[in-house]
Structures are given as C-alpha cells and as structure tokens.
Specification:
The complex is a heterotrimer of chains A (about 290), B (about 325) and C (about 350). Chain A is mainly α and about 290 residues long. Helices cover about 75% and strands about 0% of the residues of chain A. Chain A has one domain: MetI-like (MetI-like fold). The longest helix of chain B has 18 residues. Chain B is globular and about 70 Å long. Chain B has an eight-stranded mixed sheet, with helices on both faces. By secondary structure, chain B is an alpha/beta fold. Chain B contains eleven helices and twelve strands. The chains are: A mainly alpha (about 290), B alpha/beta (about 325), C alpha/beta (about 350). Chains in contact: A-B, A-C, B-C. At the B-C interface, helix 6, helix 7, helix 9 and helix 10 of B face helix 6, helix 7, helix 8 and helix 10 of C.
Chain lengths: ~290, ~325, ~350
Amino acid sequence: MSAAWFVVRRLARDRSALVGLILIGALLLAALLAPVLATHPDDVFELHPAQRLQAPSGNHWLGTDRMGADVYSRLLFGARITILIGVIAVGASLLVGVPVGLVAGHFHGWFSDLLMRVSDIFLAVPQVVLAIAIAQTLGPSLPNVILALSATYWPWFARVVYAETRVVQKEIFVESTVALGASPWRLTALHVLPNIASPIIVRASIGMGFTILTAAALGFLGLGPPPPTPEWGRTIAESREFLPDAWWYAAAPGLAIFLTVMGFNLLGDGLRDVLDPRLRRGRTPRDD
Amino acid sequence: MSGQPPLLELVELVRHFPVRNAFGRRTGWIRAVDGVSLAVYPGETIGLVGESGCGKSTLGKTVMGIHAPTAGDIRFAGREIGRLPPRQRRAIARDLQYVYQDPGASLDPRWKVLHSLHEPLKIHTRLSHAEREQQVRAILAAVGLPDAHLDHYPHELSGGQQRRVGLARILTLRPRMVILDEPTSGLDVSVQASVLKLVRALQETFALTYVFISHDLAVVRAMCARIAVMYLGKLVEVGDTALVFEAPRHPYTRSLLAAVPRIGGRRVTLDFALEGEPPNPRDVPSGCRFRTRCPLVQDRCAAEEPPLREVDGRRVACHFA
Amino acid sequence: MTELLSVRGLRVDFVTDGGVAQVLDGINLDVGPGEVVGLVGESGCGKTTLARAILGILPAGAARVRGGEVRFRGADLLRQDPAVVNARVRGKAITFIPQDPSTSFSPLFPVQTQIMDLMKWKSPRAGDGGASWPLWRYPRGRYRADREAVLETLRAVQIPEPARALRRLPHEFSGGQRQRLMIAMALLPQPDLIIADEPTTALDVTIQAQILRLLRELVKARGVSVLFTTHDLGTAHEICDRVVVMYAGQEMEAAPTDAFFARPAHPYTRRLLASVPRSDGEIRDIPGDVPSLVAPPPGCRFHPRCDHATPECQARPALRALAPDHGVRCHHPVDGPVGAGA
C-alpha cells in the first residue's frame, strides 16, 4: 500500500497528471454520490412534459431535456453507467488479454505466432467499427455494449503484455530463477507478471478513456442501453433535433464525456511517466 | 582429488546456435562449443579461461541447462543430465548451481531479499516456513551479511551486498558444484580481492567444487589449481595451473600469457607478437582453429585438427607441442 | 619544463538526489609535452570526472566547478570563452578516446561519414575553425587532402584496406578495430593532448596488448601527450611514463612508473598494489569501504581505512616531494618495497 501512496505523491508533482486525477476523482464522486448530489433524483424515471426544454436556471442548474427531466441529475446518474461500462469492459479485456499475452510471450513457436496473429486481426479493424458491428448484431443493451467493447479492447492488452514479457524474459534475474529450478508457472506468475504490472496499469487507464468514448459513440448511435437509461451518448443523440436552441441539452453530456476521457488520458500519461522508469529498475548509480 | 571419480564429466560436448536471416531461414551455425571433453573432480577449483567468443560462458550455461546441448554428454555424479526431461533437469539445480557475473542482477528487483532467499527452498524442499527461515539466516551469516538486510529490496543494498545476497541465494540449496561465470569481471582490484576471499571461504564452509570461468589470468592463477584454456569452442591446453603458467605448450596459451601485463617487470607490449583477432565462430577454420594466427603454422595444420593429447604432464591440442 | 597541462586546486561538486557530492577535492595534476600520464584509481575516485572537467564536458545540470584552474598551454580553460574553447581546443588540441567502443559510432552511417565530419571541423588544415558560415562548405581541395590524411592514419592504426573500411558500417567492425578507429580519430586533428578514458577495459587481453602497443608507438612518434585513465594497474604499467593515483576525489601520489610500482610511498597505493592477485594464491583486500562523497571524511579521505592514520590526518596533507618527480600527499609516507607488510 505504501507503494500506491508513493505513486500518488509522485503523480501529484506532475501538473497535467494532477488535473487528470482531479477529473477522475470528480467523476467517481459524481457516480457514487449521485442520489445525494442530484437536485431531482427521480427525474431518471419520471417525466414532466410540461417543463420540457427549459434553459438553465436556479431550479434546474443545467436546464431540462425533452421530457422535462433535469439534465444535471440525469448527468450524475449517467456517470454511474459510464463508470460501470468502463470498468467492466476494461476489466474483461484485461482478463482475456493478459493471459493471452503471457502465453504468447512465454512460448517461442508457432503457437505464440498464432495468438498474436489473432489479436492482430482484431486490431486491424477500427475499434468503433467492430464495436458497432457486434452491438448491432446482438441488439442494444448494456451488457451487449460491454461485450462489444471488451471484444475490441483485449488485443491491446495482449500486445503490450506480449512485448513486455519478451523483454523481461531476457533479464538476468529471470534466467537465474530458471537456473534455480523454477517451473514456468512460478516464473510467469510470481516474477514476470509483477514486473510487467506497470505497463498494464498504464494501458488500463488509457483504455478506460478510449472505451468510454467508444461507449458514448455506441450510445449516440442508439446501440447502447435503451431509454430511460441516462447514458451520456444517447442523451446527445436525443438532443440533436433541438439544437441549437436547447444548447444545454447537448453541451452538458458532451462536456462530461470530454472531461472524463481527457481525465483518463492525462492520468494514464502521468502514470506512465511515474511507473515505468522508477520502479522498473533499482539501478545503482554509475560510478565516477 | 586423485582416486575419486569426477563429479562432472563432459564428453565431446557440443553447443551450436543457428544463424537465421531476416526470413527466419537458417544460414549457418555459430559453433560456440565444438567438442569439449573435461573432467572436474570433487573439491577442486578448475579455471576455464579464454577470450571473448571462445565459448567458455556458453559451456557454463550448457552444463547448467540454460542451453540444451546439441551433442555430447554431460555426466554429473555419474548420471547423464544433458538430455533429462525438464522436471528432472530442474531437480538437478539442487546440486549444480551457477553464479552470474553480477550475482546482484540475479535477484528479482521487486522481491525483498528475504523472499528471494526463501525461494530456492520453496522450489526444491518441503520444509516449513520456520525451517526455511532458519536456513536462510544461517546462509546470510555465512556470507557475512546482517539479518537486517532481509527486509530490503536489492536496489537498497550496495553492489557488494547485492553480490553476497546473490551468492547466498544459491547456497541455500547446499549445492555440490558451483559454476562461477566471470565473478570478478569489471571489478576494482580491491573489490575483486574481497570477492575472491569470500569465494574461497565459502568453498571451505560448504565443501564446494568450483568451475571458475574468467578471462583474467592473474585471478585464475591465484584461485585455481587446474586450468583449461579454450579457443573458439575447443580446449587447447588443460593441466595444473602452475605447470601451464610456468611452461605453456600451446602457442595460443603462450600468447595469452605473454599479453598479461607484469607489474614491476618488463613491458610485455614491447615483445607482444600476436596479430589479428580470433575468427568469427561462424567461420571456424578447418583443421586447427588457431592456425590463422599461429607462429608455428604449417600445411598439416589446415588439413588435420590436432587432438588433445598428453604432453609433459598436461593435455595439449597442437601438432608441434 | 613548462607543462602542457596543469591542473591546480580543481574542485568539482555534483548535485545528486542524496545531497551535494564533492567529487573532486582540490586536484593538482601535471602533464608534460610528449608524456603519457596514467590516472589510476578505483570506481568513484573521480578520474572520469577529472577527464571530463579538463575537456569541459561535465553534465551542465548536475556538475558545479567550485574552484581551481585548468591551464592548457598557459591559458585557463575554465575561464576562457566557451566558444573559443570549443573551436580551438576541444576535439582539436585536446582529443578524447572513450571507454566503450560500441557506442562511439552512430550505427546508421558508414564510419566515413563520422570521420570526414570530424575532419570538416577539426582538421589541421581547417584554419581557426569556429562556426563558420555557410556551415556546409567543405572545400574540394581540403577534402582531398584530409581524406589522404585519414587513409594514412588508418594504415598507421593497422586497419586493413582503409579505403574499403571507410565505407563499412560500425557494427561490421570488432571491438578492437573500433578502438583503433577511435585512436585514429583522436590523432587526426594533430592534437597536443589525448585524453583516453579506460580505452582498453572492454577488450580482451591479447587485443589490449596490441592496442596499448600501437597507442604508445603512435603517440611517441608524434610527440603527443596522453592522459590515460584506468583502474587496471597492469595497463598503467604498460603504457605510462608517469602514474598518478586517485582516491575518493583526491590525488594521493604521483611518480614515474618504475618508482611508482617499485617504491610506492602512500599507504593506499601500497594497499592497492598488494591487492593484485598474486601467483602464490595469497589474496589481500582493503578493509572498509569507499567513503560517501556527500559526507566525506575530513582531510585525507583515506585515513579511516589506513593503518598509519593519526589525528593529524584529518587535515589534508600538502604535497611532499620524496624525489624530484615523486610526490606524495601523506603525513606518513611509507618507505620500502611493497610486500614488506603493506
């Protein structure tokens, strides 16, 4: 745990990473405390057609949408959806991609080539396009969105883990542990994996941003969770016919998506700077 | 030493590496170890010397099992180990161990020293945690390190301390034989002296047999009773260190010894005559490998490869020794 | 005799994570014309820093020159205009042979590119050098003359078929050959002083013998001085006329090679020589550890590990001349040959 604290402290020194950290913190707060922070928590379900498309005011901080629901409150609940999609999709990608990468990295024959070619095939298709195809085939719903996103993101993990495994394998401490008589299982689980954890973490953070963006795209195209789920992408899609008059209707979720993705990207970049050179090697300084 | 059967016996050991072009097609072989026969007896320290490219490191790693032999036998305590299935080969690590040039680098940087020292026992024995702990502390004392170091990460220790931890890790298994690969390469003279003293002390404490691989002839002379000189994958001279240093028979051994600076004596570079560089292990010359640089070369040397034969109390591979 | 290079009282600090390290503590050093001086010391003694300080290539962010002077041909390099030093001294009057031959060449270009680039700026025929405008002008006549000089020097360092060799890529040369190329590049500008930083450490012993002989022959023939840093005493014995030994940022003893190895006076020198592995198998090390340069011991930095230390060693000893050219900085120099109990 002290390692995690150490990382946070170092991150805080990097201004852009700090911004990222704050944005993600705000997102998490919004999601966790949505029922408390929302001014009109019931507006997720209830409709007030009489109050539709009102501009931002003291009562409705970010205005109302076409159903009269409070945009601000729906935004907060939308944060929950966003995080859910992001975490589960990236988590599933990790669970598939990391073992594939480890196995491909460990072996040296046709089998690892095969695995990497399969992941290359997935990577060859743009993620959004593939996600759309899968979601379209399966039908719009939250689980299907998550499935589509996992299916398109796992190769990124596989590729990073494969490359890093190959590098770590050449390290002397790996060779010496083999010489000590360690089995490949022990080697991979206890030695290789901890030493490649940093690139995986960085990739996961950046992946969150990317995945959330793609999820919003799917939502925008109507392939995401159906109404009345306050998913941000879908909200933007709904707002289209009322632009440019009801500008708040699109601006709020749009800005939310933008800040979230940027937050994860900044955090990921900051993590990359902090984690990789520092913890990788404990080199004694060169003499003289 | 005499009378006892050898602890390690190499019989025409060969290790070749394929050379592949950009398409993965094999275009040739690097004949790193090309037929080495050697016996190592219990309790002795035998030096394996040669310059870069001679194959001494590859030989050490092949014996250790890091590389699989291309041909030939490796017999350890009478048992052939070069062609064992992986699980059984891993079990041999209990008795036969290998020390890297920088033993500190053999430690996982993310593991505490304590953890690293427990690991060999976890792999090979079924001892309880308490029993392992006891062993670990005993070994740590034997290499002269305080218990406090157990709680540190490798990078928190100095280079010398890391080296001792690396050695300790190997010794937890109480191996019978240890292959030391360039243990003092790149070290300052005084640090080298400390390392050599430690290596010697450990040999006494643990009754170890050493194969001491080094390119530093002065060190080998001080540490090893027997010496084997390697050139381009084969042994060219094997015998008692004192004898070989006093009166080297192989032209390469002579050149090698002539190149070593002698402090307080005449400048060796004034007389040094060996020209050129060793050929690429990819294109080994026919017949005797040293003939491209040998002052005694004649036609016979290109046609016939000289075998390692008994001459004057040691074995030499030269037609004219 | 006017010295070619004269370092006086040089103090250099390095800013590190752990504090300010006093890497050089008032170094005095002399190199005469045509002389090969060996700078011997173990890791951390500051010999590479000293070499870099003379060349003026200390890392700008971390290193601070606190005092002292580096006089080359009479002028203090530390106080001269850096542009002038860059144009006239560095790479021209003082050249450098680095330790690791494998990283000295850009792997993308044939060696010819790098060598002719050097000649473009630093050739003896280039006039006063300096950043002349236009930067790309390389007069035909001079180019031909320079190329001739390059080929001749490559022959002198025993590179076979120099014209063909120039067109090859660096990885096609072995370590020994690359070091020969570096020697050639160090000689081409016709320098007064070559600073060689452990040039044979990475080489096999037989190749090292060839390179050392070659280097010594060439510099003696051309009257070039050499400052040769090494941690290997044998190498120093082979190639040097004089040896200076350093410990933890201080110079301890300076003497002609024979006297240095036969009658070392400083306790550290004696210990160092005694720790070389002996043929009878006896091994002696030096107890204790190299001190931290952030909080070094006062006065003579070896005194915590020295058998002959007394309280007066906490003040830095002045230079004592045991013989006209044999100087020691020690309060208790030892007499007699090594082996008589260090």
